[in-house]
Amino acid sequence: MPRDFGRGLALGRYPPYLVSMRYFARFSPLHAIRDLRVFLSHRHPYELGFLALAMVITTALIAGFVHDSHAERPYVRNIIYVEQWPATRTEAEILARQKIDQVGERARKAEIVRQQKAVQADFKKLDDRLKAMGL
């Protein structure tokens, strides 16, 4: 180890330098208020007016964003209906019920496809109008 190791640091008989550097000890709310009063007393009246205006505009923008950020979720019922079948039903009963259900399923799928095509046609109209405007 070199002879000058630790030289300049707070070792041995010297007081530790980190103890004397109490950073937050110099902060005081009273000093801060006094400094603010002195700073504001040296300002021109129009500067204080612009300061107040800037604070009002900033507060209004932040309040608007906070107010607008809250959106309630609509309540959506999530009900699951379950059909209970007897364990003694026959294969013919099962097939008959599947045929009835298949007709309803085809109707539901056809309705979904019809709705999707309607939405697609609406977007096509919008796209054509935007192209006519040059966008």
Distance between the amino and carboxyl termini:
75 Å
Secondary structure category: mainly alpha
SSE pattern: HHHH
Tell me, rounded to a whole number, the average pLDDT: 85
Helix content: 55-70%
Count the DSSP helices: 4
Proportion of strand residues: under 5%
Can you count the beta strands?
Answer: 0
* Global shape: elongated
Query: Are there runs of 5+ residues with pLDDT below 50, and where?
Result: none
Q: Measured on Cα atoms, how large is the radius of gyration? A: 38 Å
- Biggest β-sheet strands, sense, barrel: none
Any overview of this molecule?
This protein is mostly helical and 135 residues long. Helices cover 63% and strands 0% of the residues. The chain has helices at residues 17-20, 29-41, 45-69, 91-133. The two termini are 75 Å apart. The mean pLDDT is 85.
Describe the structure concisely:
Helices cover 63% and strands 0% of the residues. It is mostly helical.
Show the helix and strand layout.
Layout: H1 17-20, H2 29-41, H3 45-69, H4 91-133
Which labels suit this protein?
mainly alpha
